[in-house]
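Page 42, continued from yesterday. The earlier attempt failed because a stray header line got pasted into the input along with the sequence. Redoing it now with the clean sequence only.
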Amino acid sequence: MSTLATVQGEATGASVRPVDRSALAALGLGGVVAWVAAVVLARAGTNPLYAYNGAFAVAFVLYLAAAALVVAGRVPARRGTLVLILALAVLPRLILLASTPALSDDLYRYIWDGKVSAAGIDPYRYAPADPALAPLRDGL
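This time it went through. Structure tokens are written below.
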């Protein structure tokens, strides 16, 4: 139990009981599952905006619960706890990094405009489908 939790418990007369790191891991992995669900729903293509936002809302609530455990000092302050927190922070980002853009195709337009600019052509002079830009097209 952290010193802060001990002091708070003594000041209020309440005992703050520590929880095992497995509770933190369960909350974090639940959040990761919600992120995966959000990515899968976004790829479904049938305008899954409510389900997508709902999955991220679930992930956020689980994050808040995990953060409350840490801030309240209920999780042991050890090196393993820090490693667990960092791993649970990186894992959802890796999931999103490995996925394609789901709700917008702006990224592809930015890549195209960069390619046109790199060829010395003003990307606003021609529409992307203009035949004058045909030599710049590829499989992307």
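Notes: The chain has five helices and no strands.
Reminder to self: strip header lines before submitting.
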